[in-house]
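To close the section, here is one more complete example, presented without commentary so you can practise reading it yourself. The ligand is iron/sulfur cluster.
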Amino acid sequence: MRSPRRENTPPAPERRIDRRELLRSAARGAAAAALAVVGLVLARRHSGLSGQDCVNQSICRGCPVVGGCGLPQALSFRRVTGEGDHGG
Ligand code: SF4
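Output:
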């Protein structure tokens, strides 16, 4: 005679499929979260919201960090002058 608990338990193959679906869903969720984080980081970099502050009163010529600065005025300065693009 079977116990009532076993009658409510789905057969093993269905349980295995459910577990796989759960793992796939978890993997999809993790991938979506990772993509969201990467997108947020890239968006912040391109929007100038990287938390970087100007250290030379926006006078990019001669600024010691002009080569790696991501602020808009530094990007414009490098584009116009070419300074800081190649380490100089
Ligand atoms: S490179 Fe220009 S914007 Fe960047 S910190 Fe120096 S002065 Fe400020």
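Once you have examined the tokens, check your reading against these statements. The chain has three helices and no strands. Residues 18-47 form one domain.
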